[in-house]
Specification:
Shape: globular
Strand order of the largest sheet: 3-2-4-1-5-6
Distance between the termini: 25 Å
Strand content: 15-25%
Helix content: 25-40%
CATH class: Alpha Beta
CATH superfamily: Phosphoglycerate mutase-like
Number of domains: 1
Low-confidence stretches: none
Mean pLDDT: 94
Number of helices: 7
Largest sheet: 6 strands, mixed
Radius of gyration: 16 Å
Number of strands: 6
Length: 195
C-alpha cells in the first residue's frame, strides 16, 4: 500500500526574520507573515485527503499545525522525534556571530560534503543524529499505522535531512514549504514540492 507524506516547514517566526539561531530552546510564535504562510499550507493540502497531522512539539510548528487543522479537520498528534535540531551553544546567537566565533565548526556544519559526519556544536546534535530520528519516525508511520495520507509539521533542518536521506540535496527549506514523499514497501520516493 502506497502512503503519502506531506511535510511542511512551520510559518515564519521572529528569529527567522532577525537572523538568530533558534534550535530547541527558543520557542517563538508565528509572525503575521508566518500566519499567512500557515493558511497557505492548509489551502494547498485541502485536496490531499490528509487523515492526520503529526507535529513537532515546538510552538512555531504547533501553531502552524493548528492553522492547517482548520482546513483539514483532522487530529493533531505531537511527536518529539520531529523537533528541530539541538544547536547547542549557538542557540540564540545571530548567525553572523556564530560564523565568526565558531568559524570552523559552522563552515563544516553548512558544507553539504560533511552532512554525514558527526559535526556538532557543543551541547548539540549532529545532522546525522537528526536524520536517524526522522527516519525512525517516518518509518514508524509508514509501517506501523494505517494512515495513507499524513501531514507532518516540521522544521528546516529536519526537512532537509529527510530529503538528504532520499538522496536529494536541498538544504534551504523556506518557511511554509511543503515536500511530498511517498512510501511503498520498501522504498521511499521524493515527489517534489507542492504549491
Amino acid at each position: 500500500m502506497e502512503k503519502h507524506f506531506y511535510i511542511f516547514r512551520h510559518g515564519e517566526c521572529p528569529f527567522n526574520v532577525s537572523g538568530h539561531i533558534q534550535g530547541q530552546r527558543f520557542n517563538g510564535r508565528l509572525t503575521s507573515n508566518g500566519i499567512r504562510q500557515a493558511h497557505n499550507v492548509g489551502q494547498c493540502l485541502l485536496d490531499k485527503h490528509i487523515e492526520v497531522i503529526i507535529s513537532s512539539p515546538m510552538r512555531r510548528a504547533l501553531e502552524t499545525s493548528k492553522i492547517v487543522q482548520k482546513y483539514l479537520n483532522v487530529p493533531i498528534f505531537i511527536d518529539h522525534r520531529f523537533i528541530e535540531v539541538n544547536m547547542g551553544i549557538i542557540e540564540g546567537m545571530h548567525i553572523s556571530l556564530a560564523e565568526k566565533k565558531y568559524a570552523k565548526t559552522y563552515s563544516l556544519w553548512r558544507n553539504p560534503l560533511y552532512q554525514n559526519k558527526n559535526i556538532r556544536f557543543l551541547g548539540g546534535e549532529s545532522k546525522n543524529e537528526v536524520r536517524q530520528r526522522i527516519i525512525e519516525a517516518l518509518t514508524h508511520y509508514a509501517c506501523e499505522t494505517t494512515y495513507q495520507n499524513l501531514a507532518i509539521s516540521g522544521h528546516g533542518i529536519t526537512i532537509s535531512q529527510t530529503l538528504m536521506n532520499l538522496g536529494i540535496d536541498i538544504t534551504d527549506i523556506q518557511n511554509g514549504s511543503i515536500v511530498h514523499i511517498s512510501y511503498s514497501h520498501p522504498d521511499w520516493q521524493y515527489l517534489g514540492f507542492i504549491h
